[in-house]
Structures are given as C-alpha cells and as structure tokens.
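hey so i finally got around to running the thing on that chain from the lab meeting. sorry it took forever, my laptop kept dying and i had to restart like 3 times. anyway pasting the input first so we r on the same page abt which one it is
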Amino acid sequence: MKCSIATTEMERTAILRQRYDIFVEEFNFFTSREDGKPIEYDAYDDHALLFGVWEKDTLIASCRLVLPNDLLGLPTLNNMKIDSEKIQDDQPTAEISRITVAPSYRAFKKTIKILQTMQEAIDRTSTDHGITQLIGAVEPSFLRLLNCSSLPYRPIGPIQYLIGAERYPVILRAQEYTISLKESR
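ok and heres what got predicted. didnt touch it at all, straight out
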C-alpha cells in the first residue's frame, strides 16, 4: 500500500470518482452534478493536492489537502465555529478533507493502516510546503478512529452540523504528530 499525490489526469479522475461513489451515491452528502459527470468536485479542489492510497493499481482510499490560499481560505475555517484560543492563527495551516475509504477496506485494522499511511504522506508534503498545522471537520466516531490510529487530532470547537452530519472542527500540529510517531514506535 502506498499513498501519493495524484500526478496524472487518470489518478485525479479516479479520486474524484471515488468521492462521488462515497459522498453522493453511498452517503448522500452531496447531489449529483448537473452535467451528469460521476465526479465530486468543488472550488477548493483548485487549491488542493489530491492524495490516493493505492494497493497495486487499485485506489483504496483518498483525501485532499487544501493548501493555504487567499482566494477561498479553508473550508473548516469558513464554515465552522472555532475556539480561537485553540488554533495558532500565525502558523501556516492546511486542511485535510474529503477522506474516503473504499467499502471493502473499512475493516478496523485496515482502516487504521490506511489512515496512518495517508498521514505519513500528508506530513511529508506539509513539511515541503512549510505547513505546521492541519485542520479538518470530522464526525465523533471518525475522530475516535483517528486517535486509535495514533493520529492526535483534537477538537478546536464544539460539535456542529456540517455536510450532512454532526462534526467537530479538529487540528493536528506537526510537532504533536512527530511526538506521537516516536511514542508509538
């Protein structure tokens, strides 16, 4: 299993189709596109790197890393109440969102390995871009799964309704992730 940034149109399309299958077809978080294309895409994707987790040639999971930008900002900061004391506004911040795991890979241990593999790739890329903290919005059960995966995401605001479910705005600081890696080895 490997996680990498989508570099070809075929890889990007596979990720956007997987998002469609999960977020539109399976969970009904979003509606189908008016043009009928079976992809899930929004304006934040223009400012994001798409990551795919591949097992041989099969896409088994994906996410996006929305990079800091002045045009749109970050989805969680734009749409959720954040406890300003829990986020360092002066630090370069990116957002992980649109996390998917193919249904046949959603067993607990497999999902943990996928999330850890994904986070390692995101951490390397974040370091390359000078990102020191990552934010996102996750359901309580997914936050528990992240923590079981030794990924120390923590809430930075109250639980709120966003995109079809109650979610927490969460943060992971690069230095806390590095410490958790050392402790888990």
